[in-house]
Amino acid sequence: MGILGTINKILGRQTSAEPAPPAVPAVPAAPVVRFADVAEYPDENLIPYLDRSDVDETKLTPTQLEWRRDGVLNLPGFIPDEVTEPYLQRRIEHKKKHGWLIASPYMYVPEMRDLALYPPMMAKMKEVIGEDMMLHLCLTGWMSSQRGWHQDDYLNPPFVNSWYAAVWIALGDIDPDSGPFEYIPGSHRWPLLRGEKVRQFLTEEELSRRAPGTGINHWEKYAERFLNPAIDTQIKDFGRPPVSFLAKRGDVLVWHGRLIHRGSNPKVPGMERRSLIAHYSGVNHRPDMPERAQDQNGETYAVFHTPLVD
Ligand SMILES: O=C(O)CCC(=O)C(=O)O
Ligand SMILES: [Fe+2]
């Protein structure tokens, strides 16, 4: 190649002396999806009182003010060791790092159910949501889920509309290298992602793709390719930095169904992170979960018949 060819190569131009490479068909640029394109504010009349715009804050308890401001309740030392002990021992006995592999293992492990339905914790949730809460999901793995930034309520049926909360119960001291739970305070006031808006940006192929074996279409997974950058941009624009829940045994974090949170990537892969995570909906907002039971304290849980898988 002559000197001109070299210069043009550096400049990214073709010289007439060298034939142009075959033209590559132009791929249309994927649309840049913004958070606002795929989310909406739920109707004010359909959401819990504390999420509405017309709230008289002078009448709220400190707990309710914290929820309204941050979308979490940070409850250090909330559960005494004698209350966490029975489940902790049962979970240690189970040995598997990933815990139990169904959404409702509490149906088979009474120690888990007792902890997830600890009456003072249920009372805190009622204080902020405004109705009795019903347990319907427990995550029992002892490592970070490594799930990216998301809102939980987005994957619920649309009628749940933030009548939803989850808790992170620490069962040991959480090492900063283990991939702690992280959240963006105040992000519960953002609009709520909506499945039908998100699906508009998926390809026909993604919408019809089925997982081998189960036949389930995991559209929510495929949507991460544009949702993750959309949420990252929204976080930057919002300006409030993430908070890590660096908890000790007995500490509890309750979070709002619309709060942006994630299981961060562990600095030490696979490092143990002892917790029980439980999810709840308002008892009057789950017509899709009609079978229920009450425990000895009158706390409600949804009944499922999924066999236990470890
Ligand atoms: O791994 C984590 O701490 C995140 C869990 C989570 O996103 C959830 O339970 O909704
Ligand atoms: Fe989550």
Can you tell me about this structure?
The chain has 310 residues and is α+β, with helices and mostly antiparallel strands. It has one domain (31-302): Jelly Rolls (Sandwich), CATH 2.60.120.620. The chain contains 9 helices and 12 strands. The chain has helices at 3-11, 62-70, 81-94, 110-116, 119-129, 195-199, 204-208, 219-222, 224-238; strands at residues 39-40, 72-75, 133-139, 164-170, 181-183, 192-193, 243-244, 252-256, 261-263, 275-282, 292-294, 300-302. It has a 7-stranded mixed beta sheet with strand order 2-8-4-10-3-12-11. It has a 3-stranded antiparallel beta sheet with strand order 7-5-9, with no helix packed on it. A hairpin with a 5-residue loop joins strand 11 and strand 12. Helix 3 (81-94) packs antiparallel against helix 4 (110-116). The longest helix has 15 residues, at 224-238. The chain is globular. The protein binds 2-oxoglutaric acid (AKG) and fe (ii) ion (FE2). Residues 150, 152, 261 line the site of fe (ii) ion (FE2).
Keywords:
310 residues; alpha+beta; three-stranded antiparallel beta sheet; disordered N terminus; binds 2-oxoglutaric acid; binds fe (ii) ion
